[in-house]
Design a protein that fits this description.
Bound molecules: 2-acetamido-2-deoxy-beta-D-glucopyranose
CATH superfamily: Calycin beta-barrel core domain
Largest sheet: 8 strands, antiparallel, barrel
Number of strands: 11
Number of domains: 1
Number of helices: 6
CATH topology: Lipocalin
Distance between the termini: 89 Å
Shape: globular
């Protein structure tokens, strides 16, 4: 009689082992991963992004067509220069930022502050960056999927969407590589590009918790975009 119980318990144990910790469990998906500086360097396509701001998906889909980033190692150790190249409403924009890697944490200070870690991903050539951002007086959490490819598989997107869900973020905005990319202006001098690096695109007093989709929130964003469009037209 005792033997049956032992066997039954052992079989149950085996069964539960088989079921525990599937790769797609939230516990696994929100696990931070080590970052090595040399993993970061090079060209990345920004595939998808999810944030804690309600409405951010619609806003991103409305404004942003595609985005990529060229990360280069700076002279100082653990310091990187980022060149973000974004296509918005058919126009090309660049933003230069500096980033450091300290204690497995990425830090960026521009007119917003970012502090991020890498999370686990089943995608072999992707980075999933989970960050705390301070924009003006507003704290925003963001999850970004970057890949060496311009497009990832449906299963990889699904995993990212699950990660956003696990972290209680809004459903991700997925950018469409079919819309084409803006070139690195250094390699394509003929391309009209608006450099946002020196402009105060995120005024300190911008309060994003004034819901983006209230009339005034939306107007603030559109004013910012409009003032940059006017700059371009003056060229
Ligand atoms: C980034 O750092 C470089 C020095 O490595 C500096 O010349 C440049 O002004 C910095 N850029 C920004 C946007 O902070
Ligand atoms: C990095 O982490 C170590 C140990 O966790 C800590 O002692 C050190 O102060 C940290 N350094 C920075 C710059 O945060
Ligand atoms: C983000 O902020 C939370 C507290 O709100 C903190 O526990 C976490 O360590 C921060 N993450 C990073 C990458 O700075
Ligand atoms: C990335 O930046 C480096 C350094 O400026 C440059 O040599 C390289 O051509 C850039 N890559 C692309 C794809 O623009
Ligand atoms: C941001 O705006 C909201 C709504 O108008 C307000 O309740 C909140 O106090 C503001 N936050 C800050 C930090 O000013």
């Amino acid at each position: 009689m005792m033997e049956f119980v032992h066997v039954a318990v052992a079989v149950l144990g085996l069964l539960s082992l088989g079921h525990s910790a599937p790769v797609t469990s939230c516990e696994n998906l929100i696990q931070p991963r080590e970052i090595h500086g040399n993993q970061l360097v090079g060209k990345w396509t920004q595939i998808a992004e999810s944030t804690s701001i309600p409405g951010s998906k619609t806003l991103t889909k409305m404004l942003v067509e595609t985005a990529w980033i060229n990360i280069t190692a700076a002279n100082e150790a653990n310091t990187f220069n980022n060149l973000q190249i974004q296509k918005m409403m058919g126009l090309c924009f660049t933003l230069k930022t500096n980033m450091t890697l300290v204690n497995n944490t990425l830090n960026m200070v521009h007119n917003y502050r970012l502090s991020g870690v890498l999370l686990n991903t089943g995608c072999p050539d992707c980075l999933v960056i989970y960050s705390n951002n301070t924009i003006g007086r507003t704290a925003v959490k963001a999850l970004q999927l970057l890949s060496r490819r311009v497009k990832v598989s449906a299963a990889e997107l699904e995993e990212f969407t699950k990660q956003a869900e696990c972290l209680n973020l809004e459903s991700p905005a997925i950018l469409d590589s079919e819309k084409g990319f803006c070139p690195d202006p250094a390699l394509a001098p003929g391309t009209k590009t608006i450099d946002l690096s020196l402009s105060n695109i995120m005024p300190d007093d911008l309060n994003l918790s004034e819901k983006l989709f209230t009339e005034s929130g939306m107007k603030t964003i559109l004013d910012i975009v409009q003032s940059n469009m006017d700059l371009l037209k003056e060229d």
